[in-house]
Amino acid sequence: MAHALASSIGGIKTAGDLVARMQLKKMRLPEAKAYVADRLGVGVFDLSDSTLMRTLREELDIGTVTAVPGVAKGLEAKARIAELLDIRINCVERLKRKTGLVREPALDSKRGRS
After folding, report:
1. Sign of the torsion formed by the C-alpha atoms of 60, 95, 65 and 16
2. pLDDT given at position 7
3. Distances from the Cα of 35 to the Cα of 16, 30, 52, 69, 102, angstroms
4. What is the pLDDT of residue 105?
5. How far apart are CA 47 and CA 67, in angstroms?
6. What is the pLDDT of residues 31-44, one digit of tens each?
7. Treating both helix axes as pointing N-terminal to C-terminal, what angle do 74-85 and 29-40 enclose, rounded to 10 degrees?
8. What pLDDT, on the 0 to 100 scale, is given for residue 112?
């Protein structure tokens, strides 16, 4: 628990990583915060509440600062975040293709042939 209290000034401790992902999708900061808050079902001010966000992250299974038994980590958490925010995350898409969860387009269609 000491690590959870000492680490970060936002990021995965609250919702900073989720807001940053939306900013990478060309959203301005206020718009990104509002979008994430809406998708999580909380108010914008709740996004910076580390206690509330830790509980919510555990409930939604989207990863926490410190490992919690049974809660998603790594790519599993990223896949859940991609679904929750309705965005593409490259490593998640690559994993889906490699595991056969999503079919790759045929080689001919990549080259513009029919």
Report:
1. negative
2. 44
3. 13, 9, 18, 29, 27
4. 67
5. 20
6. 999 999 999 999 99
7. 100
8. 57
Half-sphere exposure of 75 (CA within 13 A, CB side): 8
Question: How many secondary structure helices (H) and strands (E) does the chain include?
Answer: 7, 0
Query: Distance (Å, rounded) from C-alpha 34 to C-alpha 30?
Result: 6
The amino acid that residue 85 corresponds to is L
Give mean pLDDT, residues 67-90. 92
Distance, in Å, from the CA atom of 60 to the CA atom of 94, rounded to the nearest integer, reads: 23
Contacts (Cβ under 8 Å, ≥6 apart) of 42: 52, 56
Instruction: Please classify residue 8 by burial: count the beta carbons closer than 10 Å to its beta carbon, then call 0-12 exposed, 13-18 middle and 19+ buried.
Output: middle
Three-state secondary structure call for residue 7: coil
Task: Please report the pLDDT score of residue 111 as a whole number.
Answer: 54
What does the block give as tokens for 99?
């595991």
Q: Which two tokens stand for residue 54?
A: 């830790």
For the record, the structure tokens of 91 come out as 């490593």
